């Protein structure tokens, strides 16, 4: 069995357009990291231990913590292979989150943190920024091993700024360092400082960026990823087969959430009605205003895509793995205690054993859809991805046929 190290050939040589999308959610990024580790392990069972997720997905999209995971999975190392294997990302979070989000254990720390949030970001971001720069170095957007989509929000112009490999050829000023993109998409208001940087093209033109967390624009970037592909198809990009309206069922999307608060543990409007700025910023170890807009963003995308794939009679091509039963510290984006981080790993592992769910288009809640578990769905997905890559290798004049077991 040969190694699947050959680059993924364009979709025009296959039957599918494969997309991986990872939500934002701070330390809760451990949950999708656990899911991705399982999927990559299944791909390795089929294609060998050198298999990596970037070898199989046409597009990897991520917001905030999901944007950082996207960069880690797709940035090349010195050997031209992904910088991180999926099974290394969970350990990365466990090792570094306590230093990114140091926990104040002194008396009255909650009041101290609230006061700090009113006068500046809760964390200075220094450790996170240095860590990202160390890991990603001078790698730029155009160098990723597969196409990526990472949203940010420009606070100066009050509009989304989407970094995508599809744009860099025609818009070189968007060809930023992956480190700057990752820092920007993770700059959650009240938690971490906004990020400013510049890019320069070959003719000396300079562009400034004033960016904050991509979750302000799209905490669930799955729809953005589909949109970027659709634009390329519309422009006649030869990487894609001509698609008719009913052919959008060829999209195969794996969308990973970072967990939602359990409904009966959320907030009561009668309680919220009396809240002022302080309560919206800090209430029971969470930031309700941040939770509201990030979860609303994620859920609206899920609702839309569920409706579209249902209308196309291709529901199995949209896999959404999300846990909406989080309670207590697990709901937080920054309570990086050893106990909570360990609990998040267990939540990810339990999520694998849960039945595949579908959003109820009437209630907006996730409901068990099949007897199949998420784990079984990912095993099946690994086989589909492997077959698709092999098919493209066979059909492409630039590809290399791989033997399969």
Task: Give a verbal description of the structure.
By secondary structure, this protein is of the alpha/beta class. The protein has a single domain (11-403), classed as Cytosolic phospholipase A2 catalytic domain. 40% of the residues lie in helices and 15% in strands. It has 13 helices and ten strands. The chain has helices at 30-47, 65-74, 86-100, 109-119, 126-136, 178-185, 215-218, 222-234, 269-272, 277-281, 288-311, 338-353, 374-395; strands spanning 17-22, 59-62, 147-154, 159-164, 195-200, 206-212, 251-256, 318-321, 355-359, 366-373. The strands form two sheets. Strands 1, 2, 3, 4, 5, 6, 7 and 8 form an eight-stranded mixed β-sheet that branches. A two-stranded antiparallel sheet has the order 9-10. The N and C termini lie close together (6 Å).
Nutshell version of this structure?
The protein has 405 residues and is an alpha/beta fold. The chain contains 13 helices and 10 strands. Pfam families: Patatin.
- C-alpha-based Rg, rounded: 21 Å
Query: By CATH's scheme, which homologous superfamily applies?
Result: Cytosolic phospholipase A2 catalytic domain
User: Could you name the ranges where pLDDT drops below 50 across 5 or more consecutive residues?
Assistant: 401-405
Top CATH class: Alpha Beta
Determine the structural class based on helices, strands and strand pairing: alpha/beta
Biggest sheet overview: 8 strands, mixed
How far is the N terminus from the C terminus? 6 Å
| Residues in helix, % | 25-40%
GO biological process, one term: lipid catabolic process
Motif (GXGXXG): 24-29
Active site: 64 (nucleophile), 213 (proton acceptor)
Motif (GXSXG): 62-66
């Amino acid at each position: 069995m040969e190694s699947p190290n050959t680059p993924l050939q364009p979709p025009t040589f296959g039957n599918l357009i494969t997309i991986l999308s990872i939500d934002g959610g701070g330390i809760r990024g451990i949950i999708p990291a656990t899911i991705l580790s399982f999927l990559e392990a299944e791909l390795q069972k089929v294609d060998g231990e050198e298999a990596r997720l970037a070898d199989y997905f046409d597009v990897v999209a991520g917001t905030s913590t999901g944007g950082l995971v996207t960069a880690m999975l797709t940035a090349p190392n010195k050997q031209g292979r992904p910088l991180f294997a999926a099974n290394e990302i969970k350990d990365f979070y466990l090792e570094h989150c306590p230093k990114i989000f140091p926990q104040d254990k002194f008396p009255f720390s909650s009041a101290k943190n609230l006061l700090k949030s009113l006068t500046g970001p809760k964390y200075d971001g220094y450790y996170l920024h240095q860590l990202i720069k160390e890991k990603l170095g001078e790698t730029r957007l155009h160098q990723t091993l597969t196409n990526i989509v990472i949203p940010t929000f420009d606070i100066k112009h009050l509009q989304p700024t989407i970094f995508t490999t599809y744009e860099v050829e025609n818009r070189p000023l968007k060809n930023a360092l992956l480190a700057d993109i990752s820092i920007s998409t993770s700059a959650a208001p009240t938690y971490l400082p906004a990020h400013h940087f510049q890019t320069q093209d070959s003719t000396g033109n300079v562009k400034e960026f004033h960016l904050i967390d991509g979750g302000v624009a799209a905490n669930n970037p799955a729809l953005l990823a589909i949109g970027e592909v659709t634009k390329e198809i519309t422009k006649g990009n030869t990487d894609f087969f001509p698609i008719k309206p009913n052919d959008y069922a060829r999209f195969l999307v794996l969308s990973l959430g970072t967990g939602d608060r359990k409904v009966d543990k959320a907030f009561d409007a009668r309680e919220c009605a009396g809240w002022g700025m302080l309560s919206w910023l800090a209430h029971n170890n969470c930031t309700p205003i941040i939770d509201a807009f990030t979860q609303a963003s994620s859920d609206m995308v899920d609702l839309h895509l569920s409706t579209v794939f249902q209308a196309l009679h291709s529901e199995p091509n949209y896999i959404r793995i999300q846990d909406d039963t989080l309670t207590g510290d697990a709901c937080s984006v920054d309570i990086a205690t050893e106990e909570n981080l360990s609990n998040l790993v267990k939540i990810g592992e339990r999520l694998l054993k849960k039945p595949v769910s579908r959003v109820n288009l009437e209630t907006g809640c996730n409901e068990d859809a099949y007897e199949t578990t998420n784990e079984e769905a990912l095993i099946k997905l690994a086989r589909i991805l492997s077959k698709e890559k092999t098919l493209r290798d066979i059909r492409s004049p630039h590809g290399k046929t791989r033997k399969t077991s």
